[in-house]
Amino acid sequence: MFDELPFPKDVKRLLPLSHWPLPALSTGFLLAVASCVNAVDVQWFSSFFQENRDSEDEPLDEGWTFHLGYFSSSFVPTSGNTAEWAAHWQQVDSTAYQVTGSRFAGQWANDGSVTGRPAYIWGLNRQRASNEWILLHDASWNFPFAGGIAPPVNWAAGDAGEVIVGALNAGGVHLRTEAVEGEPFEQTYPIWLQTYFTDEELSAGTLTGASDDADGDGQANAVEFAFATNPRDAASRAGVMVAKDTSGEIVFSAPRARATAVSLFPQVSPDLVLWLEDSSLEVLASSSSELLFRSKLDGNQAFARVRVELP
Ligand SMILES: [Ca+2]
Question: Is the terminal CB of the chain with fewer CB neighbours within 10 Å at N or C?
């Protein structure tokens, strides 16, 4: 969407983000996921077609993800210790918010590794510069035993007896997120894959490589990971934007997914052939949600892109 912004010709133009070859990923994680058998599954979800809004009353968008997990040791999350949540969070499953159904729905194949732990559902948005979270729990949400065949356990957001941050069914809004202190928990590429791909797809591995483009939108999975877009939705894309700084000079701005294990390397080019890093540009600001830079090239035009590299 950003590469369709109106833009003066012959001055500077922008180019969608591109992606360079990446190191191969370990498949150990994927094999572990596929090994679950005879488990009591956990279905965790919110109801269809509800009003779900953030603290500014905007509907939740495709940047939202929901996570099922627990907090390590004896840590108990409260609205007063949100800045400490990330350090204690242990993710079990995750799923993307479905804008069309205005809900989230995940299913976790229980492997027995976390039996008895109190379960929480954490909603967050890594695209946002400020934190907006919701955290739900209920006294009955404890990870079940594995083994044997049993009906799935159902945990509905609307049944949560504890809303640690955010609000539930207040003022005509089903899920309401809240602006709080802190950073989302650190996300790696294999963990991110869980949000958007089924266990079967993870096992097959044909769509899930860093250089694969699962939705065919021209942006590799690694790029979608770096910018917190949805790799299964071709309409969900991000790119370098052009902006003006306070003195009127044209600068480039790249969004960045918060708390995401990826490195970004801005590049500029005079001609779309030769791409330069480092001394050919100046990084003006680098925050957890944005990278701001300008070209130092001579001449009256410059192009910009960002190289994405997984650790
Ligand atoms: Ca893509």
Answer: C
Q: What pairs with residue 53 in β-bridges?
A: 59, 176
Using the structure block, give the residue that is written with the tokens 């990923």: 25
Distance 65 CA to ligand 1 centre (A): 17
Q: Rounded distance, CA 294 to CA 284, Å?
A: 7
Coil vs helix vs strand at 15: coil
- Across-strand partners of 307? 265
Q: How far is the CA of 214 from the centre of ligand 1 (A)?
A: 5
Q: What pTM value is reported for the model?
A: 0.83
Alpha carbon distance 190, 193 (integer Å): 5
Residue pLDDT, tens place only, 102-136: 999 999 988 888 999 999 999 999 999 889 999 99
The torsion angles phi and psi of 137, rounded to 5 degrees, stand at -155, 155
The answer for residues whose C-beta is within 8 angstroms of residue 145's C-beta and 6 or more apart is 40, 112, 115
Q: Tell me the CA–centroid distance for residue 218 and ligand 1, in Å.
A: 6
Cα 189 to averaged position of ligand 1 atoms, centre (Å): 14
CA 227 to ligand 1 center in whole angstroms = 11
Ligand 1 center from residue 63 Cα (angstroms): 15
Distance in Å, CA 230 to ligand 1 centroid? 8
